[in-house]
Amino acid sequence: MKKVIGEFLGTATLVAIVVGSGIMATNLSEDIGVQLLINTISTVFGLAVLIQVLGPISGANFNPVVTMVDLIQKRTNFVTFIQYAIAQTAGAITGAVLANAMFSHPLYEISTKVRSGGNQYLGEIVATAGLILIINLMIHQEKTGLIPVIVASWIGSAYFFTSSTSFANPAVTVGRIFSDSFAGIAPGCVSKFIAAQILGAIIGLGLTKVLTHDK
Prior knowledge:
Strand content: under 5%
CATH topology: Glycerol uptake facilitator protein
CATH architecture: Up-down Bundle
CATH class: Mainly Alpha
Structural class: mainly alpha
Helix content: over 70%
CATH superfamily: Glycerol uptake facilitator protein
Number of helices: 8
Shape: globular
């Protein structure tokens, strides 16, 4: 149970960081570049801390496709996958509501921010494939102690170099529906984002197999 709670708490805090810093960014500046920079810096530092402190408890997945890849590789079982996915998604929604509360937004609001187009879906594929690849390479190279820094660095970089600003996480994508802010995403865009993330995860796993094949 503490593992499931760890996943819930970690994902909730991550989304609170993403959404809250997005709201703060728009309060502080009208410059979109500055807004994205504020959002990125807060997410990078927050994510690194969360992975570091909750990793020993739950593995710090905070992401259904990360857990899905663990399931495919038999690092976890189906029951744990379902428990984690539910906890991650519920946590993400809770985190968005918490961020709304902190900034006096309506607790329950639906985003109107449209994020669509093949270029953005490609961005999600790239961001998620890279995330899965680097996690698995770090594990293969027995450098798990570097995962908090490496993963946070990748996400921070992908905020800027991908057209989608790197959601790379189905649970976080669902959570961001519930914030009509800089970090939000309209419900109609979510299914294609998640499909791109799943495809990206499979590609990332395939690349891992190629790069770590011993023969």
